[in-house]
Amino acid sequence: MAAHENTMNDKNRENPMRDRSIRGAIAFVTAALLGGCAATTSMQADAPLTIARQGSFFVGGHDVQSDTLSVLPAYAPSGTISVEQMYVHYQVPVSPDLLSLVFIHGCCLTGKTWESTPDGRMGWDEFFVRKGHPVYVIDQVARGRSAVDPSVINAAKAGKTPPTQLPPVFSAGHESAWAIFRFGPEYPKVFPGMQFPLEAQAEFWRQMVADWSATLPTPNPTVPALSELARTLKSTVLISHSQSGIYPFQVAALNRDGVAGLVSIEPAACPAADGDLKPYVGLPILVLWGDYVDLAPRWAPRLKACREFVRAANVAGGKAELVLLGDVGMPGHSHMLMQDRESLKIADWLASWIATHVTR
Amino acid sequence: MAAHENTMNDKNRENPMRDRSIRGAIAFVTAALLGGCAATTSMQADAPLTIARQGSFFVGGHDVQSDTLSVLPAYAPSGTISVEQMYVHYQVPVSPDLLSLVFIHGCCLTGKTWESTPDGRMGWDEFFVRKGHPVYVIDQVARGRSAVDPSVINAAKAGKTPPTQLPPVFSAGHESAWAIFRFGPEYPKVFPGMQFPLEAQAEFWRQMVADWSATLPTPNPTVPALSELARTLKSTVLISHSQSGIYPFQVAALNRDGVAGLVSIEPAACPAADGDLKPYVGLPILVLWGDYVDLAPRWAPRLKACREFVRAANVAGGKAELVLLGDVGMPGHSHMLMQDRESLKIADWLASWIATHVTR
Predict the structure, then answer these.
(1) What is the ipTM of this complex?
(2) Which pLDDT value is given to residue A97?
C-alpha cells in the first residue's frame, strides 16, 4: 500500500486543495480495501460473510399536496410528494436462528451510525448478522434517505409565508457535540482513558447531518413506523440510541405486538417513573450506558431519571435492567459506544444479554 | 403467509389510519422475508450471497464555521460543521476478479436507487457483487446520508438574512416526475408496454427526497469526491444516472487517474460535441437509454445532443457508444430502467458490455 500512498501524495502536490480530504479517504478506503476488521471476539470477523438476502424498503409515509415544492423553472411548484416514510436496510443471515434486531440512530446522525466505525472497523450492523440475527437499520423519518418536505422553505423564499415560520432544522457543531458525545468535558479536552477513536475524528464529523426532528409531531412519526415494522417482523428487539432512546418505549406503549424486547442506549429520556408503566410489564428492557455520565451536566440527570424509571417499572412487574459498561468490565466508553475501540466487545456482551433475556 | 396477513388485517381494523401504509409494508417486507428475487439471469439470484467485506465511509468534505446552526436552546447556534462530504457504501466479493463499479444516483433520489426495486426484487448493487464486481454506491453531496448546511435557513428564520437568500431546495412532485421518469406522456397516462412496476408506484415515490443540488457550485462537489474515490480504487467504472449523467465526464476531464470507463444512463446532459474532447480519447464510454425518448419533449433533445457528442468523441479518437435498449432487444424501458421489470436482464447486458469494452 506504500506505493499507492506515494502515488496519491504526488497527486496531492498537484492539487493541494484536496490534500486533507484525500488523506481521510486514504485512511478509510485503505482500511476497507485491506479488510481492517480485527477479530476482537470469538467470531472470525475477517472471514467472508454469507447472507441469505439483503435489501431495503420504506415503512409508513403519506402524501401531501404543495404549491411550493420548487422555485426553479425546471421543476413544477405544485404537486404531491410522499413524506414521513422511514427507510429500512436489512440483511438476513443464512440461518436466522436468533431474533431480528432493529437499529435506530440518534440526533444529527443516520443509519450510518451502525455501519463501519470512523476508524474503519466492522459496524454493529454486520457484527449482529454474523452472530445470526436478521438486522434492520433505519434512517429516521426526515433524515438521511427518508425524505423531508421543503415546501416551507420555498414558501418563505417566495414571500408567501413569513421567515419566522421556517422549520427549526439544526446542526450540532463539532464544539458542542464534543461534550454531548462525551469525548471530554468540553471541546477539545478528553476524558482520561476515553475509548472513542479520536485519530479518526474527522470521519465521525462527516457522519453528522442536519436534524429536522424538532419540525415533527410527538411522538416522532418514526415511532408508528417502527411499530409497523415490528408487527411485520412478528418478534424483534428495538435498539435505540440517544435522541431515539425513548422511541422503543413509545412503540411498546402504542402496541406491544412484535416487540420482544427493548434496548435503549444512552437515552435522552426514559419514560416517567410516575407515568403509566403497564406497557412495560413483562417486557425485557435494557438501558445501557457508557462512562463519565456523572461528569456530564447534560447526561447525569438523564441517567438518574432512567434509574428511577427502571426501579418503578420493576415494581410494576417489569423486567428492566440498567447497566453501566464500566460495571461489567468495560470502562472508558463515550456516548458513541457502538463506534468506540471496544465496540465489538460491547456488541458481544449485548448479544449475550439479548440471548439470555429475550425470547420470541 | 396468509395467517400473518390476517393477523395484520385484524390490527388494521383497530387502527384504520395506518391501513394504507401497512399494506405497503406487508408487500415489501413479504417480498424481503420470502426472498422474492426471480432468477432472471444465468446467476442463481436467490442463492445465499457471500462477500469478502462490506462497509461505508465518506470522501471529501470540508469544515465551515457558522453562527446560525440552530435556533433551538438545546443546540448552540455557533460552531463548526463538516459539509460537502460524499457517503459511500461498498461490498466486495470474495473473488473480486472484475473491475470495481461506482453507482451514482440522479435527481431527487439517493443511493437507494440501486438497491431493492420498488416491487422488492434484487437491486443492481447486489447483482453486480454477485457477478464478481466490487460495488460502491454513493449518496451525492448534500443528499441522503451526505450532510447539508442548514445555516441559511436559520439565518433567515432569525431575520439575519432576507428570505430571498434561502437555498433553492426543491422536490419533484409525483405528477411532474411521472413524465420526467417517462412512465407515460403525462400523469397518469402510461406508455404502451412500459416496464416500470407501477403496482409498486407508492414505494417508488417514497424513494424521492428534497434536492439541494441547485445550491451547490459547478461542478457539483460530488465530482471531485468521485475523482478521489476513483484514484483510491485505482481502476473503476463510473456509472451515473440522469442528473448525475454528466458527472463521470466531468471526473474524466478533471483527472483520468483511476477511471477505467464511463457508463452514463439517460444523462440530463452529455459534454458539448464542440467542446474539448481530449479527456475522452481512448476511454470506453457507454451512453445508455431506455424507450419512448423521442416521445418526451424533455428527453428527445438530450438524446440528440448525446448522439452528437458520441459522434464527435469518436472522430476525436474516442471509444464511445450510444445504445437504446430497444435496439438490443429490450423495449419498453422507462427512465428508471434499473428498477424496471427486466432490470436484471439489463444489468446482465451491461455486465457483458463492461466485460468486453473496459479493461483495467
Answers:
(1) 0.90
(2) 84
Q: How far is A315 from chain B (nearest CA, A)?
A: 30
Domain count, chain A: 2
Report chain B residues whose CB lies below 8 A from the CB of A85.
Answer: 21, 206
What is the domain extent for residue A296?
51-61+86-146+195-357
Chain A hits for B167, CB-CB cut-off 8 Å, are: 153
Do B229 and B93 share a domain, yes or no? yes
The predicted-structure confidence for A102-138, as pLDDT tens digits, reads as follows 999 999 999 999 999 999 999 999 999 999 999 999 9
Q: What is the 3-state secondary structure (H, E, C) of chain A?
A: CHHHHHHHHHHHHHCHHHHHHHHHHHHHHHHHHHCCCCCCCCCCCCCCEEEEEEEEEEEEEEEEEECCCCCCCCCCCCEEEEEEEEEEEEEEECCCCCCEEEEECCCCCCHHHHCCCCCCCCCHHHHHHHHCCCEEEEECCCCCCCCCCCHHHHHHHCCCCCHHHCCCCECCCHHHHHHHCCCCCCCCCCCCCCCCCHHHHHHHHCCCCCECHHHCCCCCCHHHHHHHHHHHHCCEEEEEEHHHHHHHHHHHHHCCCCEEEEEEECCCCCCCCCCCCHHHECCEEEEEECCCHHHCCCCHHHHHHHHHHHHHHHHCCEEEEEEEHHHHCCCCCCCCHHHCCCHHHHHHHHHHHHHHHCCC
Q: Is B85 exposed, middle or buried (0-12, 13-18, 19+ CB in 10 A)?
A: buried
Same domain, A12 and A114: no
State whether B25 and B153 are in the same domain: no
Taking CB atoms and an 8 Å cutoff, what residues of chain B touch A22?
Answer: 228
CA A197, chain centre distance (Å): 17
Pair B18, B70 in one domain: no
A81 within a domain of the structure (yes/no): no
Q: What is the pTM of this model?
A: 0.90
Q: How many CB atoms lie within 10 A of CB B249?
A: 27
State how far the Cα of A250 lies from the Cα of A104, in Å rounded to an integer: 13
Count interface pairs A-B at CB distance under 8 A: 331
Specify if A188 maps to a domain: no
CATH number for the domain spanning B219: value is 3.40.50.1820
- Residue A175 included in any domain: no
Residue indicated by cell numbers 424509571: A309
> Is A307 a domain residue?
yes
